Amino acid sequence: MTTKGTRRHFKPEFKKDAIALASEQGYSIPKAAEAVGTTANNLRRWIKERKQEESGVRLDAGERAELDR
What is Dmax (Cα atoms) for the chain? Predict the structure, then answer.
């Protein structure tokens, strides 16, 4: 169990797989989140961020790294 104030970090590939459960495999967001061990709110946020990256509104991880260099 995590203590209050401790935040878990998820790798981009993990997020991509979680998003795929909901968007490609027909799981509801709450069921997909439960299956991968996160919250429905996290999964909703990841889906929103992915859509923003695909539309060019938000930089993806690779683009952010390039910008930082």
Answer: 39
In-domain check, residue 5? no
Residue 47 clears pLDDT 60, i.e. is over it: yes
Q: How far apart are CA 37 and CA 27, in angstroms?
A: 14
Is the pLDDT at 30 greater than 70, yes or no?
yes
CATH number for position 64: 1.10.10
Compute the distance between CA of residue 27 and CA of residue 7 in angstroms, rounded to an integer.
25
CA angle 43, 63, 29 (to 5 degrees): 10
Q: Are 67 and 42 in contact (CB under 8 A)?
A: no
What pLDDT, on a 0 to 100 scale, did the predictor assign at position 3? 59
